[in-house]
Write a structure and sequence with these properties.
The chain has 424 residues and is of the alpha/beta class. The protein has 16 helices and 16 strands. It has two domains: 247 residues, 3-Layer(aba) Sandwich (Rossmann fold); 159 residues, Alpha-Beta Complex (FokI Restriction Endonuclease, Chain A, domain 1). The chain has a six-stranded mixed sheet with strand order 6-7-8-3-9-10, with helices on both faces. Strands 2-1-4-5 form a four-stranded antiparallel sheet, with helices on one face. The protein has a three-stranded antiparallel sheet with strand order 11-13-12. Helix 9 crosses helix 11. It starts with a strand and ends with a strand. The model has no long low-confidence stretch (mean pLDDT 91). Bound molecules: adenosine-5'-triphosphate. The site of adenosine-5'-triphosphate has 12 residues, from helix 1. Adenosine-5'-triphosphate binds next to helix 1. This is NitT/TauT family transport system ATP-binding protein. GO terms for molecular function: ATP binding; ATP hydrolysis activity. Keywords: ATP-binding, Nucleotide-binding, Transport.
Protein backbone atom coordinates (compact mmCIF):
# COMPACT_ATOMS: atom_id res chain seq x y z
CA UNK A 1 0.00 0.00 0.00
CA UNK A 2 1.30 3.49 -0.85
CA UNK A 3 1.54 6.04 1.91
CA UNK A 4 -0.62 9.15 1.53
CA UNK A 5 1.88 11.20 3.47
CA UNK A 6 5.57 10.45 4.04
CA UNK A 7 7.89 12.33 6.32
CA UNK A 8 11.44 11.54 5.26
CA UNK A 9 14.53 12.34 7.33
CA UNK A 10 13.07 15.61 8.52
CA UNK A 11 15.09 17.85 10.83
CA UNK A 12 14.18 21.32 12.04
CA UNK A 13 16.26 24.02 13.68
CA UNK A 14 15.13 27.48 14.74
CA UNK A 15 17.31 30.56 15.06
CA UNK A 16 17.40 31.96 18.55
CA UNK A 17 17.83 35.56 19.63
CA UNK A 18 21.38 34.61 20.66
CA UNK A 19 22.10 34.09 16.94
CA UNK A 20 22.56 30.41 17.68
CA UNK A 21 20.17 27.79 16.47
CA UNK A 22 18.13 25.27 18.39
CA UNK A 23 17.76 21.86 16.80
CA UNK A 24 14.24 20.77 17.68
CA UNK A 25 13.65 17.72 15.46
CA UNK A 26 16.26 15.31 14.17
CA UNK A 27 15.92 12.83 11.38
CA UNK A 28 12.21 12.07 11.73
CA UNK A 29 10.74 9.59 9.24
CA UNK A 30 7.31 7.98 9.20
CA UNK A 31 4.42 7.30 6.81
CA UNK A 32 0.69 7.74 7.12
CA UNK A 33 -1.48 5.31 5.17
CA UNK A 34 -5.07 5.49 4.05
CA UNK A 35 -7.70 4.54 6.64
CA UNK A 36 -5.54 4.81 9.69
CA UNK A 37 -5.32 7.00 12.73
CA UNK A 38 -1.75 7.77 13.73
CA UNK A 39 -0.75 9.54 16.93
CA UNK A 40 2.40 11.38 17.77
CA UNK A 41 3.02 11.23 21.49
CA UNK A 42 5.64 13.52 22.94
CA UNK A 43 6.28 15.87 25.83
CA UNK A 44 5.54 19.58 25.70
CA UNK A 45 8.05 21.40 23.51
CA UNK A 46 9.19 18.27 21.68
CA UNK A 47 8.23 19.66 18.27
CA UNK A 48 4.84 18.04 17.69
CA UNK A 49 3.14 21.20 16.40
CA UNK A 50 6.23 21.92 14.30
CA UNK A 51 5.75 18.58 12.55
CA UNK A 52 2.10 19.36 11.82
CA UNK A 53 3.06 22.74 10.38
CA UNK A 54 5.43 20.99 7.98
CA UNK A 55 2.74 18.54 6.86
CA UNK A 56 0.35 21.46 6.26
CA UNK A 57 3.04 23.08 4.13
CA UNK A 58 3.31 26.25 6.21
CA UNK A 59 6.84 25.46 7.44
CA UNK A 60 9.69 24.14 5.35
CA UNK A 61 11.90 21.59 7.11
CA UNK A 62 15.53 22.65 7.64
CA UNK A 63 16.44 19.35 6.00
CA UNK A 64 14.56 16.32 4.71
CA UNK A 65 11.18 16.42 2.99
CA UNK A 66 7.48 15.86 3.42
CA UNK A 67 5.75 14.05 0.56
CA UNK A 68 2.03 13.95 -0.09
CA UNK A 69 1.00 11.11 -2.39
CA UNK A 70 4.57 10.95 -3.63
CA UNK A 71 4.94 14.69 -4.36
CA UNK A 72 7.02 17.02 -2.17
CA UNK A 73 4.93 19.44 -0.11
CA UNK A 74 6.20 22.91 -0.98
CA UNK A 75 3.11 25.08 -0.50
CA UNK A 76 -0.03 24.91 1.62
CA UNK A 77 -1.29 21.36 1.26
CA UNK A 78 -4.95 21.49 0.10
CA UNK A 79 -5.63 17.86 1.04
CA UNK A 80 -5.20 18.39 4.77
CA UNK A 81 -7.01 20.45 7.35
CA UNK A 82 -6.30 21.12 10.96
CA UNK A 83 -8.09 21.18 14.30
CA UNK A 84 -6.40 23.39 16.91
CA UNK A 85 -6.30 22.97 20.68
CA UNK A 86 -7.64 26.49 21.31
CA UNK A 87 -10.47 26.02 18.76
CA UNK A 88 -9.36 29.12 16.75
CA UNK A 89 -12.93 30.23 15.94
CA UNK A 90 -13.74 33.76 14.83
CA UNK A 91 -15.78 35.24 17.69
CA UNK A 92 -17.80 37.61 15.49
CA UNK A 93 -19.09 34.81 13.26
CA UNK A 94 -21.73 32.30 14.28
CA UNK A 95 -21.32 28.52 13.99
CA UNK A 96 -22.57 28.30 10.43
CA UNK A 97 -20.52 31.30 9.29
CA UNK A 98 -17.36 29.91 10.92
CA UNK A 99 -17.81 26.70 8.95
CA UNK A 100 -18.62 28.46 5.67
CA UNK A 101 -15.50 30.58 5.99
CA UNK A 102 -13.38 27.43 5.74
CA UNK A 103 -15.11 26.59 2.45
CA UNK A 104 -14.42 29.99 0.87
CA UNK A 105 -11.04 29.13 -0.70
CA UNK A 106 -12.67 26.19 -2.53
CA UNK A 107 -14.87 28.56 -4.64
CA UNK A 108 -17.84 26.20 -4.48
CA UNK A 109 -21.28 27.24 -5.72
CA UNK A 110 -23.88 28.28 -3.15
CA UNK A 111 -25.70 24.93 -3.14
CA UNK A 112 -22.51 22.99 -2.49
CA UNK A 113 -21.53 25.33 0.34
CA UNK A 114 -24.96 24.74 1.94
CA UNK A 115 -24.69 20.99 1.36
CA UNK A 116 -21.25 20.59 2.96
CA UNK A 117 -22.08 22.96 5.81
CA UNK A 118 -25.32 21.16 6.67
CA UNK A 119 -23.62 17.80 6.42
CA UNK A 120 -20.84 18.62 8.90
CA UNK A 121 -23.24 20.38 11.25
CA UNK A 122 -25.26 17.19 11.35
CA UNK A 123 -22.40 14.75 11.85
CA UNK A 124 -20.74 16.80 14.56
CA UNK A 125 -23.94 17.18 16.57
CA UNK A 126 -24.31 20.93 16.03
CA UNK A 127 -27.87 20.89 14.72
CA UNK A 128 -29.83 23.62 16.49
CA UNK A 129 -26.68 25.64 17.22
CA UNK A 130 -26.16 27.04 13.70
CA UNK A 131 -26.73 30.63 14.79
CA UNK A 132 -24.92 30.51 18.11
CA UNK A 133 -21.72 32.55 18.58
CA UNK A 134 -18.58 30.90 20.00
CA UNK A 135 -18.88 32.70 23.34
CA UNK A 136 -22.34 31.20 23.83
CA UNK A 137 -20.95 27.67 23.53
CA UNK A 138 -19.17 25.41 26.03
CA UNK A 139 -15.57 24.35 25.30
CA UNK A 140 -16.78 20.98 24.05
CA UNK A 141 -19.30 22.56 21.66
CA UNK A 142 -16.69 25.04 20.41
CA UNK A 143 -14.41 22.14 19.58
CA UNK A 144 -17.27 20.46 17.72
CA UNK A 145 -17.32 23.58 15.55
CA UNK A 146 -13.52 23.30 15.14
CA UNK A 147 -13.93 19.72 13.95
CA UNK A 148 -16.90 20.59 11.69
CA UNK A 149 -14.94 23.41 10.08
CA UNK A 150 -11.98 21.12 9.42
CA UNK A 151 -14.19 18.36 7.99
CA UNK A 152 -16.24 20.73 5.78
CA UNK A 153 -13.44 20.89 3.21
CA UNK A 154 -13.51 17.07 2.93
CA UNK A 155 -9.82 16.65 3.77
CA UNK A 156 -8.14 13.36 3.03
CA UNK A 157 -5.92 13.81 6.06
CA UNK A 158 -7.15 15.50 9.22
CA UNK A 159 -4.42 16.94 11.45
CA UNK A 160 -5.31 17.47 15.08
CA UNK A 161 -3.12 19.43 17.49
CA UNK A 162 -4.01 18.33 21.03
CA UNK A 163 -7.67 18.90 20.11
CA UNK A 164 -9.26 17.84 23.39
CA UNK A 165 -6.76 19.20 25.88
CA UNK A 166 -8.93 22.24 26.66
CA UNK A 167 -12.17 20.38 27.37
CA UNK A 168 -13.32 18.39 30.42
CA UNK A 169 -12.32 14.74 30.68
CA UNK A 170 -15.83 13.40 30.11
CA UNK A 171 -16.51 15.74 27.20
CA UNK A 172 -13.14 14.76 25.69
CA UNK A 173 -14.11 11.09 25.98
CA UNK A 174 -17.35 11.61 24.10
CA UNK A 175 -15.73 13.82 21.44
CA UNK A 176 -13.10 11.14 20.79
CA UNK A 177 -15.74 8.50 20.38
CA UNK A 178 -17.76 10.76 18.02
CA UNK A 179 -14.61 11.43 16.00
CA UNK A 180 -13.95 7.72 15.54
CA UNK A 181 -17.61 7.17 14.58
CA UNK A 182 -17.40 9.90 11.94
CA UNK A 183 -14.11 8.55 10.58
CA UNK A 184 -15.40 4.99 10.42
CA UNK A 185 -18.81 5.78 8.96
CA UNK A 186 -18.12 8.60 6.49
CA UNK A 187 -14.51 8.11 5.34
CA UNK A 188 -14.21 11.88 5.73
CA UNK A 189 -11.36 12.17 6.58
CA UNK A 190 -9.62 9.09 5.23
CA UNK A 191 -6.80 9.30 7.77
CA UNK A 192 -6.12 11.21 10.94
CA UNK A 193 -2.82 12.36 12.44
CA UNK A 194 -3.20 13.55 16.00
CA UNK A 195 -0.52 14.97 18.26
CA UNK A 196 -0.97 14.54 21.96
CA UNK A 197 0.77 14.17 25.27
CA UNK A 198 -2.11 12.17 26.70
CA UNK A 199 -1.38 8.43 26.71
CA UNK A 200 -5.02 7.38 27.21
CA UNK A 201 -6.07 9.56 24.31
CA UNK A 202 -3.58 8.04 21.88
CA UNK A 203 -4.42 4.49 22.98
CA UNK A 204 -8.12 5.21 22.50
CA UNK A 205 -7.78 6.80 19.08
CA UNK A 206 -4.91 5.35 17.15
CA UNK A 207 -3.80 2.38 15.12
CA UNK A 208 -0.16 3.42 15.47
CA UNK A 209 1.54 5.48 18.14
CA UNK A 210 4.79 7.25 17.35
CA UNK A 211 6.62 8.03 20.58
CA UNK A 212 8.97 11.02 20.48
CA UNK A 213 11.74 11.80 22.93
CA UNK A 214 15.29 13.00 23.44
CA UNK A 215 17.08 16.25 22.66
CA UNK A 216 16.85 17.01 19.80
CA UNK A 217 13.61 15.12 19.41
CA UNK A 218 13.80 11.79 17.63
CA UNK A 219 11.43 8.87 17.22
CA UNK A 220 11.92 6.58 20.22
CA UNK A 221 9.62 3.85 19.08
CA UNK A 222 6.50 3.11 17.07
CA UNK A 223 3.77 1.02 18.70
CA UNK A 224 1.08 -0.85 16.77
CA UNK A 225 -2.24 -0.67 18.57
CA UNK A 226 -4.48 -3.54 17.56
CA UNK A 227 -7.09 -3.20 20.32
CA UNK A 228 -10.50 -3.77 18.74
CA UNK A 229 -12.88 -0.82 18.37
CA UNK A 230 -14.95 0.46 20.08
CA UNK A 231 -12.31 0.74 22.77
CA UNK A 232 -13.07 0.84 26.43
CA UNK A 233 -10.87 3.05 28.65
CA UNK A 234 -11.50 0.72 31.58
CA UNK A 235 -10.84 -2.66 29.94
CA UNK A 236 -7.84 -4.69 31.08
CA UNK A 237 -6.29 -4.73 27.59
CA UNK A 238 -6.66 -0.96 27.30
CA UNK A 239 -5.08 -0.38 30.73
CA UNK A 240 -2.25 -2.79 29.91
CA UNK A 241 -1.49 -0.87 26.74
CA UNK A 242 -1.46 2.44 28.68
CA UNK A 243 0.88 0.85 31.23
CA UNK A 244 3.16 -0.48 28.53
CA UNK A 245 3.55 3.01 27.02
CA UNK A 246 4.09 4.53 30.47
CA UNK A 247 6.92 2.05 30.98
CA UNK A 248 8.53 2.96 27.66
CA UNK A 249 8.44 6.68 28.47
CA UNK A 250 9.67 6.25 32.04
CA UNK A 251 12.50 3.98 30.96
CA UNK A 252 13.65 6.54 28.40
CA UNK A 253 13.08 9.75 30.42
CA UNK A 254 14.04 8.48 33.86
CA UNK A 255 16.58 5.75 33.10
CA UNK A 256 16.84 3.42 36.03
CA UNK A 257 20.58 3.76 36.45
CA UNK A 258 21.32 5.04 39.94
CA UNK A 259 24.90 5.96 39.03
CA UNK A 260 23.93 8.08 36.01
CA UNK A 261 23.59 11.39 37.87
CA UNK A 262 26.60 10.63 40.07
CA UNK A 263 28.69 9.92 36.97
CA UNK A 264 27.49 13.20 35.44
CA UNK A 265 28.60 15.00 38.58
CA UNK A 266 31.97 13.26 38.73
CA UNK A 267 32.64 14.02 35.10
CA UNK A 268 31.72 17.62 35.76
CA UNK A 269 29.16 17.75 33.00
CA UNK A 270 26.94 20.81 32.61
CA UNK A 271 23.48 19.47 33.38
CA UNK A 272 20.32 20.80 31.73
CA UNK A 273 17.89 22.00 34.40
CA UNK A 274 14.46 20.40 33.99
CA UNK A 275 11.56 22.84 33.73
CA UNK A 276 10.24 22.54 37.27
CA UNK A 277 9.76 25.29 39.84
CA UNK A 278 10.78 24.97 43.51
CA UNK A 279 7.06 25.01 44.37
CA UNK A 280 6.41 22.03 42.13
CA UNK A 281 9.42 20.11 43.47
CA UNK A 282 8.49 20.79 47.09
CA UNK A 283 4.88 19.86 46.24
CA UNK A 284 6.05 16.51 44.90
CA UNK A 285 8.18 15.86 48.00
CA UNK A 286 5.29 16.77 50.30
CA UNK A 287 2.99 14.48 48.38
CA UNK A 288 5.53 11.69 48.67
CA UNK A 289 5.85 12.33 52.40
CA UNK A 290 2.09 12.05 52.85
CA UNK A 291 2.23 8.69 51.02
CA UNK A 292 4.85 7.04 53.21
CA UNK A 293 7.90 8.25 51.24
CA UNK A 294 7.23 5.98 48.27
CA UNK A 295 4.75 6.02 45.39
CA UNK A 296 4.18 4.95 41.82
CA UNK A 297 4.83 7.72 39.31
CA UNK A 298 1.54 7.20 37.39
CA UNK A 299 -0.44 7.16 40.57
CA UNK A 300 1.14 10.50 41.51
CA UNK A 301 0.18 12.00 38.12
CA UNK A 302 -3.43 10.91 38.60
CA UNK A 303 -3.62 12.02 42.24
CA UNK A 304 -2.10 15.43 41.53
CA UNK A 305 -4.20 15.74 38.36
CA UNK A 306 -1.10 16.63 36.36
CA UNK A 307 0.10 15.54 32.97
CA UNK A 308 2.36 12.52 33.12
CA UNK A 309 5.07 14.47 31.22
CA UNK A 310 4.98 17.25 33.85
CA UNK A 311 5.42 14.74 36.67
CA UNK A 312 8.38 13.25 34.81
CA UNK A 313 10.00 16.72 34.55
CA UNK A 314 9.42 17.48 38.24
CA UNK A 315 10.74 14.05 39.22
CA UNK A 316 13.83 14.53 37.05
CA UNK A 317 14.47 17.83 38.81
CA UNK A 318 14.01 16.27 42.27
CA UNK A 319 16.38 13.48 41.26
CA UNK A 320 18.97 15.90 39.95
CA UNK A 321 18.85 17.69 43.31
CA UNK A 322 19.37 14.34 45.02
CA UNK A 323 16.04 14.46 46.86
CA UNK A 324 14.63 11.26 45.31
CA UNK A 325 15.60 8.05 43.56
CA UNK A 326 13.48 6.49 40.85
CA UNK A 327 13.77 2.72 40.92
CA UNK A 328 11.52 1.26 38.18
CA UNK A 329 8.24 3.22 38.10
CA UNK A 330 8.40 4.53 41.62
CA UNK A 331 9.78 7.53 43.44
CA UNK A 332 11.45 7.17 46.86
CA UNK A 333 13.10 9.66 49.18
CA UNK A 334 16.87 9.77 49.50
CA UNK A 335 18.34 10.61 52.90
CA UNK A 336 18.72 14.23 51.80
CA UNK A 337 15.14 14.35 50.46
CA UNK A 338 13.84 12.98 53.76
CA UNK A 339 15.90 15.53 55.73
CA UNK A 340 14.68 18.37 53.47
CA UNK A 341 11.02 17.54 53.95
CA UNK A 342 11.41 17.27 57.73
CA UNK A 343 13.10 20.69 57.97
CA UNK A 344 11.65 24.13 58.54
CA UNK A 345 11.68 26.69 55.71
CA UNK A 346 15.07 28.22 56.64
CA UNK A 347 16.78 24.82 56.83
CA UNK A 348 15.08 23.82 53.57
CA UNK A 349 16.57 26.86 51.87
CA UNK A 350 20.05 25.93 53.16
CA UNK A 351 19.74 22.35 51.90
CA UNK A 352 18.33 23.59 48.59
CA UNK A 353 21.26 26.02 48.22
CA UNK A 354 23.82 23.29 48.83
CA UNK A 355 22.15 20.94 46.37
CA UNK A 356 21.84 23.45 43.54
CA UNK A 357 25.44 24.59 44.01
CA UNK A 358 26.47 20.95 43.51
CA UNK A 359 25.21 21.32 39.94
CA UNK A 360 27.95 22.49 37.67
CA UNK A 361 25.76 24.74 35.54
CA UNK A 362 24.25 26.54 38.53
CA UNK A 363 27.64 26.94 40.22
CA UNK A 364 29.17 28.29 37.03
CA UNK A 365 26.39 30.79 36.34
CA UNK A 366 26.33 32.01 39.96
CA UNK A 367 30.13 32.42 39.80
CA UNK A 368 30.00 34.55 36.69
CA UNK A 369 27.43 36.82 38.31
CA UNK A 370 29.62 37.07 41.46
CA UNK A 371 32.72 37.81 39.42
CA UNK A 372 31.11 40.38 37.17
CA UNK A 373 32.24 44.00 37.63
CA UNK A 374 29.12 45.27 39.40
CA UNK A 375 27.93 41.93 40.73
CA UNK A 376 25.14 41.88 38.20
CA UNK A 377 24.67 40.62 34.65
CA UNK A 378 21.92 40.94 32.10
CA UNK A 379 19.60 38.09 31.22
CA UNK A 380 21.10 38.10 27.72
CA UNK A 381 24.60 37.37 29.13
CA UNK A 382 23.28 34.39 31.07
CA UNK A 383 21.26 33.15 28.09
CA UNK A 384 24.40 33.34 25.92
CA UNK A 385 26.37 31.37 28.48
CA UNK A 386 23.65 28.70 28.69
CA UNK A 387 23.56 28.41 24.87
CA UNK A 388 27.35 27.98 24.78
CA UNK A 389 27.34 25.26 27.40
CA UNK A 390 24.16 23.46 26.35
CA UNK A 391 23.63 24.07 22.62
CA UNK A 392 20.89 21.40 22.36
CA UNK A 393 18.68 23.00 25.00
CA UNK A 394 16.24 25.90 24.93
CA UNK A 395 18.19 28.56 26.90
CA UNK A 396 15.06 30.56 27.81
CA UNK A 397 13.57 27.59 29.62
CA UNK A 398 16.81 26.83 31.47
CA UNK A 399 17.16 30.50 32.41
CA UNK A 400 13.66 30.47 33.91
CA UNK A 401 14.46 27.41 36.01
CA UNK A 402 17.88 28.78 37.01
CA UNK A 403 16.31 32.02 38.26
CA UNK A 404 13.53 30.29 40.18
CA UNK A 405 15.97 27.86 41.83
CA UNK A 406 18.54 30.51 42.81
CA UNK A 407 15.82 32.88 44.05
CA UNK A 408 14.43 30.16 46.30
CA UNK A 409 17.94 29.66 47.75
CA UNK A 410 18.22 33.44 48.36
CA UNK A 411 21.28 33.43 46.11
CA UNK A 412 20.28 35.63 43.20
CA UNK A 413 17.66 38.23 42.38
CA UNK A 414 16.13 38.97 38.99
CA UNK A 415 14.41 42.15 37.91
CA UNK A 416 12.21 41.32 34.92
CA UNK A 417 11.84 45.02 34.01
CA UNK A 418 15.56 45.76 33.66
CA UNK A 419 16.45 42.09 32.98
CA UNK A 420 19.26 42.33 35.57
CA UNK A 421 20.44 39.26 37.47
CA UNK A 422 22.22 40.21 40.70
CA UNK A 423 23.40 38.80 44.01
CA UNK A 424 20.87 38.83 46.85
N1 LIG B 1 9.32 29.82 15.02
C1 LIG B 1 10.03 29.39 16.06
N2 LIG B 1 11.17 30.02 16.43
C2 LIG B 1 11.92 29.58 17.46
N3 LIG B 1 11.62 28.49 18.21
C3 LIG B 1 10.50 27.82 17.89
C4 LIG B 1 9.64 28.22 16.81
N4 LIG B 1 8.60 27.34 16.75
C5 LIG B 1 8.80 26.45 17.74
N5 LIG B 1 9.93 26.73 18.42
C6 LIG B 1 10.51 25.97 19.54
O1 LIG B 1 10.56 24.63 19.11
C7 LIG B 1 10.24 23.76 20.20
C8 LIG B 1 9.11 22.84 19.78
O2 LIG B 1 7.91 23.59 19.65
P1 LIG B 1 6.50 22.91 19.32
O3 LIG B 1 5.44 23.95 19.56
O4 LIG B 1 6.56 22.29 17.98
O5 LIG B 1 6.43 21.77 20.42
P2 LIG B 1 5.19 20.92 20.91
O6 LIG B 1 5.69 19.54 21.11
O7 LIG B 1 4.03 21.11 19.98
O8 LIG B 1 4.89 21.59 22.30
P3 LIG B 1 3.50 21.88 23.06
O9 LIG B 1 2.94 20.54 23.41
O10 LIG B 1 3.95 22.65 24.27
O11 LIG B 1 2.63 22.67 22.11
C9 LIG B 1 9.93 24.63 21.39
O12 LIG B 1 11.11 24.73 22.20
C10 LIG B 1 9.60 25.98 20.77
O13 LIG B 1 9.94 27.02 21.67
Amino acid sequence: MDAICSIKNVSQSFSLSTKKSLEVLKNISFDIYENEVVSILGPSGSGKSTLLRMICGILKPSSGSVFYKGKPVVNINPNVSMVFQNFALLPWLNVEENIKLALKPLNLDKNEVEKYTNMVIKITGLTGFEEAYPKELSGGMQQRVGVARALAVQPELLLMDEPFSHVDTLVAESLRSELIDIWQSTQNPKSILIVSHDIKEVVYLSDRIIVLGGKPTQIKTVIENKLPRPRDYRSIDFLNMVDYIHDIITASDLPDIPEAIETQRKENVFEALPEASPGEIVGLLEFLDSHGGYDDIFHIAVELNREFGDIIKITKAAELLDFVDTPRRSIVFTTIGRKFIESDIEQRKQIWKKEILDLRLVRHLVDIVKNSDNEFLYKEDIINEISNRLPQEDPEKIFKTFISWTRFADLLAYDSETEEVSLQ
